[in-house]
Design brief:
single chain, 102 residues, 0% strand, globular
Length: 102
């Protein structure tokens, strides 16, 4: 991996972290309604889906299998194990597809 890629990943991680922490800092002394809390809790999942949805619409079999495994994990596990399984499954299947020439 080249330095530009690592810098980009680091910058994206920092911005993600800062937006998460910023929300807590700006809203820490406010009382939020149930509807507002529900929207704030759903937003990260919506953003994630918007980022990854084009990969699943591509018809790539590795991505579709990874999606199936992830959905199965999501029905049985909490968020962190599901994300770890999703990343590992997608990585392994994409690597296998790359080795197989597909």
């Amino acid at each position: 991996m080249n330095s530009a890629t690592l810098l980009t990943i680091g910058a994206m991680a920092a911005v993600t972290y800062l937006t998460r922490v910023g929300g807590y800092l700006f809203l820490r002394n406010r009382e939020l309604g149930a509807r507002t809390k529900a929207v704030l809790e759903a937003a990260p999942g919506c953003v994630l889906i918007a980022v990854i949805a084009p990969d699943f619409a591509s018809g790539n079999s590795a991505n579709l299998i990874a999606l199936g495994v992830t959905l199965f994990a999501a029905t049985r596990l909490s968020l962190l194990p599901t994300v770890l399984i999703a990343v590992a499954t997608a990585g392994i299947l994409r690597h296998a597809a790359h080795l197989g020439g597909g």
